[in-house]
Design brief:
There is one protein chain. The chain is an alpha+beta fold and 133 residues long. Helix content is 23%, strand content 31%. The chain has helices at 8-28, 40-48, and strands at residues 50-54, 59-61, 73-75, 78-93, 97-106, 114-117. Strands 1-4-5-6 form a four-stranded antiparallel beta sheet. Helix 1 (8-28) packs antiparallel against helix 2. The longest helix has 21 residues, at 8-28. It starts with 7 loop residues before the first helix and ends in a 16-residue tail after the last strand.
């Protein structure tokens, strides 16, 4: 059985569609005590992505947020487009920090989406302005 590969743009659209699905119920429950987790701004962010800086050289990009998953390429230093982030394998880089957060990225010119540990991104353990996946 062949599993279709999801590109960064396809994943971003799926994230945005999921976010849009959540907007109506959140609006209907505006008077409830829990704030709406996702709004139109989050959906727009998922479509556009956020440019992030990779500070290290030859960082492995993975097909899953796991150090043991396939790594079809390396990247860095340079800029990537970050669509969303989620927890995955814990990664520690001596002298730089550690994180279990990974970002779903693609190259600025477009590419299939891949995962990079946030340890290698400027911005800290979890990147501000990038929605959770």
């Amino acid at each position: 059985m062949r599993i279709p590969r999801i590109t960064g743009r396809t994943a971003a659209l799926a994230v945005a569609a999921g976010a849009l699905t959540l907007i109506a119920p959140a609006t209907a429950l505006a008077s409830a005590s829990a704030p709406a987790a996702v709004g139109p701004a989050a959906a727009q962010q998922a479509l556009a992505g956020k440019e992030v800086q990779v500070w290290a050289s030859n960082v492995r990009l993975h097909v899953e947020p796991s150090v043991s998953s396939d790594s079809p390429t390396t990247f860095g230093p340079g800029k990537l487009i970050d669509f969303c982030q989620r927890k995955g394998d814990f990664v520690s880089e001596p002298g730089q920090g550690s994180s279990s957060w990974w970002s779903y990225v693609e190259l600025p010119g477009g590419s299939d989406g891949l995962w990079i540990s946030n340890v290698y991104l400027v911005g800290g353990e979890k990147i501000d302005g990038v929605p959770d996946c």
